[in-house]
Amino acid sequence: MTDVTRKTILSGMRPTGKLHLGHWTGALENWVALQDAYSNFHLVADYHALTTNLDTSGLYQNTIDMVIDWLAGGIDPEKSPVFRQSQIKEHTELHLIFSMLITKNRLERNPSIKEQVRDLDIENIAYGHLGYPVLQAADILLYRGDLVPVGEDQLSHVEITREIARRFNATWGEVFPEPEPKLTKFARLPGLDGKDKKMSKSMNNTILLSDDTDTVWQKLRKAPTDVQKVRRNDPGRPEVCLVYTYHEKFNPSETEEIAEGCRSGELGCVDCKKRCAARIDSFLAPHREQRARYEARPDMVEEILQDGETRARRRAEETMHAVRDAMKLG
Ligand code: SF4
After folding, report:
1. pLDDT at 120
2. Is the CB of 267 under 6 A from ligand 1?
3. What is the pTM of this model?
4. Structural domain of residue 138, as residue ranges?
5. Over the Cα atoms of the chain, what is R_g?
């Protein structure tokens, strides 16, 4: 059951299919940690997916694959409703109202849009893409979210949500809280192609949460290491090595010993990678087991979504009732 005495957090992801380790360290780990202390709503942002890809043929399967990773990773759907944005019509209704409360210029100044359209002409960006922070504001405020878990780079979105909430309240009356960003570490796990690259499906540099033992090893064995450590006994620099970053995250109890072995030259990169792969694999093993359970029962996943949608819809309808009252829309 959703606990109304707790602060509300809305968090979501676009349905991109099976998740990778970057999703775990960047978001999912944090969602699981927060689910006992807050009232969480977990949104499958399927309308947001349309801002950059109009091909909807794989959307349903990508949703199911992602939700299975949420559940296998420890999201408890009893505590936190898990639901699809597209199934709660109030998202689009509130988005329309909010779109009257913000200017095109303001949206064009959004640093994330500037980043996303770096190579495009801003004049040719789709209306819905430019306005996606407005849909995001509707996502958050529909559930009267008090807090939004974000990394530093997403603070500008929360600011737009706060501006819209203020503008609505000043125009039609107090309905919405001004949600605060909840800054989390959101460790950006580097991708398999280098320490400075983000792990991302589009870059094809990921380890999936569902990868099996051999796949993890095959991916990790090709990962770049310190370029100065050419032969086994050459001294290396763990601080510049991608594999060492993975040890820090998934093998913290051995990092000191590994750093020493690397610096002295006693530890070779192949052995170091084998140890890293083994640790990542033991981290993933229970996830794979849980995943298999849900994959065998697609009806259970569908039921979890439908239950989450019923509960989310209840909250959304309450909010829209208050919105229409405040706006005297009858
Ligand atoms: S020994 Fe390990 S930490 Fe050192 S460079 Fe090789 S892979 Fe990286």
Report:
1. 60
2. yes
3. 0.93
4. 8-189+298-326
5. 22
